[in-house]
Specification:
The protein has about 90 residues and is an alpha+beta fold. It has one domain. The longest helix has 16 residues.
Length: about 90
Amino acid sequence: MLYRPFESRVLGCHIRWVPSLWIYTANDSFFSPSLAAEMHQNYVRAGGDADFRALPAFGQDGHGLFTAAGGPQIWGPLVEAFLANNLR
């Protein structure tokens, strides 16, 4: 059986109230767009609070978005907006 992270039965209630930002790219070699979307749906269905952002492909492998040159210009505004909306 395929391991399914974020199924309701494996989520701890202690993490559900923490808002989270999920950023994925179309060419992430670790998480396909369909897997990322499925994990997000399961997380939210189980009571999680998550803002999901599906971005276009980035470079050769979108998994490097956060550390690659040019990456902060893409994810930085998303993180800033998320923090502005969730830190009060």
